[in-house]
Each structure stands twice: as structure tokens, then as C-alpha cells.
Amino acid sequence: MSGTVENGSIVRLERIDARIEPYDWAYARENAAAIAAHWARISAGKPAMFNGRIMLQHRAAIRGGVFEAGYFETDYAAFMAWRDAGHPGPVIRNGFAMAALRASDGAFLCGRMGDHTANAGKVYFAAGTPDREDARPDGTLDLAGSVTRELGEETGLRVAELSVGAGWTAVIEEGRIAFMREVGIGLPAEAARALMLERMKTLAEEELSDIVVIRALGDTGRYDMPPFMRRYLAHIFAGDRSSSASRK
Fold this sequence. Notes:
This is NUDIX hydrolase. The protein is an alpha+beta fold. It contains six helices and 13 strands. It has helices at residues 26-30, 32-43, 76-84, 143-155, 189-200, 227-247; strands at 2-3, 10-13, 15-20, 53-63, 66-75, 94-102, 108-113, 123-124, 127-128, 162-164, 168-173, 176-185, 208-214. Strands 2, 6, 9, 10, 11 and 12 form a six-stranded mixed β-sheet that branches. A four-stranded mixed β-sheet has the order 1-4-5-3. Helix 2 (32-43) packs across helix 3 (76-84). It is globular and about 60 Å long. The two termini are 31 Å apart. The mean pLDDT is 94.
């Protein structure tokens, strides 16, 4: 497969080649006052919200199972204003890695964002928009490292307790690409949830208010879950049914 990156598609990838590049983002340059006003509104009463530096994606192509992308640095306030304004301007995406965490009994484990966060109440896999911590000395972005780092920071799970799959599943939308990497934990879902909730109490900063167990697509209707998460889970559960049927 090769060519453009199409909104609405779900694509299996062998790897991601992500590089940090110079880019003049006109939206941030031309809307400084509106960005500052928007940030003041959404961060009011949430002192834990931090306007740090992040990486957004300005170019993307898929060639031979490799996702090739260019990223540039901006600040979180500009990203939030642009996102909430409906992604104006040329194609920019928040291309982030997610740990699609699955328990030994097949259930998925998602986090519910705390009330003090920008996405309060939302339910999805551990993830974070790329930032300077993900940058390697050669100018590439370590999205694979981001998967286990964000999972550890949000749930307290350690790499040695996990099995990390190969390759990626990209869920592509306007303004967003979720790079899903399969991660397994050798515990049934309720035991894994209990472990994470206990570990979360010891974290310096608790981003999550709860761990949610998803055993079937119908479970997602009970939560405030973004559409891209539902699309991914529908894709995986459909694949599970196909695999089960072929073994009969």
C-alpha cells in the first residue's frame, strides 16, 4: 500500500518513520490573541493544565507499510484552540501513539480522564501527544517508547509486566491519527484493573480517575468514548469474531 493518508481509514502498519522538521504554522502565528483567550477559558479552575510544548504532524504518507511523517513543535494552547475551532487551515494532525492494553481474558482496559484534565471524563487508552521527551538525538520521534512511557505514567504498570506487540494499527481522522500498538498484560481484566488502581494511588500526578473494562463493543455505549476509539474496538472485535469463526 502506498499513497495519501485518507480520513476514515484504518490501516495496518509495519513501522512509523516520524521526523521533527521546521514548519511555519500560520494558524499559531496569526491567531495569538484568540489562542490566549481560548486557553484562559478552558484552563480556568484547572491549575494542573499546563501549556507545554508538543509535536504535531504536518505531512504524512504511507509507503510499503511504513508511515512517513513530519512533525513540528508548537504549544498545547495553540493545538487546543485549533482543535476546538474545527482544524482550520492546511492539513495538520495530532499523530499520537496509544497502548491498546488487553487483559489475558480478552477484555480491553481504558482510562477515564480525571476532572482536572483538558479531556475530563473521556475514556480511552493511555496516550499522549508527542513532545520533547519523545525526541531522539537524531531528530526522529520515538513513538514506540511513548507507548510504554505514557502507560507507565498514567497507570503505574512496568514494561517487564507487559508484552508489547509488533507493528501498528493507524486510525485516521481529520485532525487526528491514533497509532495503536497492542500491549498485553498476563492478568484477567478485573485483576489488572485492581493492580492499576492501586498503583495509581502512588503516582506523583494522577491523570486518570478510573480504569474501565471493555469486553464487547456494546460496553462502549456506557462511557464518554471518542469515536476513533469505538472505530478501533469495532475493528478489533470484528477481527476476533472472524478468527473465531475460521477455527470452527
